[in-house]
Amino acid sequence: MPPAQVIPLHAEPALFNPQTRICAECGVRKFALLGVVDLADLDRVHTHISSIKLSPGQSLYSAQAPGLAAFTLRSGIVRLERTSERGERRILRLAGASDLVGMEAMLGQTYAADAVACTDVEVCRLPRSLIEELARQQPELPLNLMKRWQSALDDADEWMTELCAGAARHRMLRLLLKLTEYAEGDRVWLPSRQEMSAMLDMTIETASRLVSQLKREGVLDTPDQRHAVIHNDALMAALRSDSLSA
Amino acid sequence: MPPAQVIPLHAEPALFNPQTRICAECGVRKFALLGVVDLADLDRVHTHISSIKLSPGQSLYSAQAPGLAAFTLRSGIVRLERTSERGERRILRLAGASDLVGMEAMLGQTYAADAVACTDVEVCRLPRSLIEELARQQPELPLNLMKRWQSALDDADEWMTELCAGAARHRMLRLLLKLTEYAEGDRVWLPSRQEMSAMLDMTIETASRLVSQLKREGVLDTPDQRHAVIHNDALMAALRSDSLSA
DNA sequence: CGGGACCTTGAGGCCTCTCAAACTTTGTGG
DNA sequence: CCACAAAGTTTGAGAGGCCTCAAGGTCCCG
């Protein structure tokens, strides 16, 4: 359950379902899939949304498992990963607050990847039947879903062009830049070296060497093991000088 | 125009629009987006489908251009590519017969990548308004579109795990395997070394060396510069022994 | 026949991997 | 609270894979 601070609802109609109240107060709702849905409609629906909390390393769902629900991220970062035919784990992309993951469940398909929490994570579970029921009342919902599919595809394409190609140092710099997109405050989540290596297709040792080097260069500081402060101008300067030499 | 062999339409109702007749005779229609659409509905629609032919290297659409139509591939292979911020071209994935490309146009967005013909290509141009008009009559159409988005995402994810990671030789073997998916007969399209290097993130020289080596090993033959015969058992054996040593 | 685009091959060097060891952090139990 | 184990990180040295630079070959087309 999310931390249910009971804030009075002013202009909203009376809501009967306690979960709907939580939705009404949700900080990411207006950016999320159900942001287009009337709270009143949501309140009338039979299937229930449930809130789930995960700790780093915990799995949200697994590839090949029957997809019964999609999930909206309320906070934290989730990684989507796959195991290659050679048996190596590869991180495909990250999802952050207000992102929707596991959309393939809406098509009755099995999940296409593993979803694992990178940080403490809060998600809302949206069962397939809920979305279908709401879609009947809200014709915009399928359109919003399609836009989310396209934006997942854009993310995948960007990941591919920027994080999968070029020298190791350059890929690491691009990763740091990407991590700032998921920042909460001035600190960003700093992946483990293992995670970095699975995202950037390099060894743990190379990832470690690069992070150490960039720390020495003043591109980032690590107040603790799982957080970094990234100095944007130094990062940008490093990226620029990197492009020149290439 | 596609080669319009006039085959009599038996049980079908009379079709008035000459393009609809071409659709009726299209070899890939039942696998394509409009496979779920009644020919009679298609015949009544105001917006027109048009057929386009492209030669290798010709552009179907460009990234950032306003997306006015999606395209169903009737034959040939199209590559989707992007230019990274460093200015390097990267091939993201391939599309083959019955695939739908440029779906982002259905959302009123600009195209997310460049689409370029790799071989001789025939496509059907499906304007946005056509899809919207048909969707009103055919509620299955949006669902089919969503499935295609998901499958594009699956392709992107598979490309990422299998073609973007590991040793150069392994990536090349995986590419040859992928090319067999687009085979017409026993010959597969063999990309130029330039294209290979943009798909696998390696230099032209490395791609050339690997192809030469695999030819010597009997994994493939090249009857001409743009085609190969791939010997599946040798390819599989190479992939297996590759995984063992890793 | 000459030029251009593409492919192939070689030599040398750098980047990244492999293997190994030491260090740091985290968690557990005394 | 400390000791210890386990996991994760850092650093080094050496090897090897891939890149760079360069030259020569092949095919196609004017």
From TrEMBL, chains A, B:
Superkingdom of the source species: Bacteria
UniProt keywords, alphabetically: DNA-binding, Transcription, Transcription regulation
Domain Cyclic nucleotide-binding as annotated: residue spans: 33-134
Record Gene3D superfamilies: Jelly Rolls, Winged helix-like DNA-binding domain superfamily/Winged helix DNA-binding domain
Domain HTH crp-type positions: 166-233
Short name of any one Pfam family annotated for the protein: cNMP_binding
PANTHER family: CRP FAMILY TRANSCRIPTIONAL REGULATORY PROTEIN, REGULATORY PROTEIN YEIL
The name this protein goes by in its record: Crp/Fnr family transcriptional regulator
Organism of provenance: Ideonella margarita
